[in-house]
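Before surveying the methods themselves, let us examine one representative protein, written as a sequence plus integers encoding its fold.
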Amino acid sequence: MQMNAWQMVVRALEIEGIPFVFGLPGNPKHLYDQLYDSPSVRPVLVRHETSGSFMAMAHARLTGQVGVCFGCPGPGIANLVPGILEAYSGCTPVLALGVRASQKTEGMGAFQETDHLGMMRPITKWAVTLERAERIGWTMRRAISIATSGKPGPVYVEIPADIALDPVEIPDYVPADRSIRPGPDPDQIEQLVDMLQQAQRPVIVCGGGSILSRAFDAVKATTDQLGIPILVTPAGRGIIAENHPLFAGSVGLYRTEYPRAVYQEADLLITVGSRMEEFQSGIWNYFPEGARFVQIDIDPFEFGRNWVPDLAIQSDASLALEALVSSALRRGLKPNENRVADLRTRQTDAIAAMLVDANDDASPIKGKRIVREINEVFGDNTILALENGGQDLWAYYWPYYQVLDPGCVLPPAEQTVMGLGVCGAIAAKLAQPERQVVSTTGDGAFQMAMHELPTAVQEGAPVTWIVFNDGALGWPQLTQRENLNGRIIATDFTAPFDFIKVAEAAGCWATRVEKASDLHAALESARRANLNGQPAIVDVHVDPIEHHAGFVEYHTLR
């Protein structure tokens, strides 16, 4: 059929069921004029291209669909890099689209001529320049297939300006096949069942690969049928409801007392889709003494990258766990009821202790009090969009915050780029408008992304941002206090900044909280504002030096 390359790009997005393109136009002849006529693909106008790449990653994480962002030549593409880097770190399927200078003048110094591929190749699975317009359908299909196959990840496709708009004969678009998933070696599954039969205290740690596999049902069936407790990395959080009686919290930097005990007493450690990197492994110090280790991952590159496994199973997470349950039940493996009862009792005790600990009326307000109140006010059907700062890190610490619905967490990956959660909350609401969305952020990360408040208003995305305001870059300042003999420099925000005025100027509801007794009412008001279609900001004055014991312990390892 006769069409130009950008028309086929939009056609491909329509056929693939991709609903949004996050970005902003430069020359609107490229992509945006073609989006004008699309019945199903909507451009989301951001205030900065980096925000668009953050939102594309967030959309992909929450839906399992490819997230799409767009950048103009030169600085526009450069601004996509932080989000594409985070998506690469988090194995998230993002398609970045760009325009390149004309082929006719390549190398002559055209306006915004830049080596985009040089930027993108190190942080994508595939980065390509379209050389012939009639190949755009093949290129789009190939890009989406690569982004979603095996270990997922971002891809980059750019179209030179001089071949992008001329009509050519382009073959019909053929959708990408996303059903190809590697299953486990049956003999290795039998070995794993043998190991489970010999183990007294097995545990499973689910990482981001379990989410990317959409292994929600498979994980729940594994713990329900076999009685194995589930722990998670930050990227694996949301794989199971965290009020499940056999949920045992997070690992590494993010562990509380009960998760630490369950993990350290294990005699068989099974990781599912996790690299167990520095934060998750406690700088590779947190390994259960004497335990055997099984690593399930879709990517053989990850085997033995950190700890050497006794058994390595290359497989999609869902297929591996489904095969495990089937084999275990066939061979008569049953839950250890005494252990299950013990774990349930200990979990109940851990939650009860948390409720006492979180009920702290002190001023400045404690982070643990904030996240507990968020959980109680917003309840279930809520997506938690995370940043990764010193005080908002309390939202990572189960059971202070419990994710009540599978799939309802938006975490950064290992790069922990600031601003992803603030921006990603908007994409989360667009992706799942029936859910509530709460972003927990420090004041540093919020300042990196608060330019997107008008985007939330414009796009009809009523979310709530809770700003843990300690007037500083809290985590770097902690390092200064502990390791630099208190030599504090360039981490205090000494110029006062009024988030309330900024929020209200953007059309959001906003309030400031300085007393713990006022927190519940403020969160209720924010939730009501969201229900009425208005984004909300709650600026909370927090204790800058209060951290969970697990956070403190981790820092002694450095």
Notes: The CA atoms of residues 419 and 449 lie 5 Å apart.
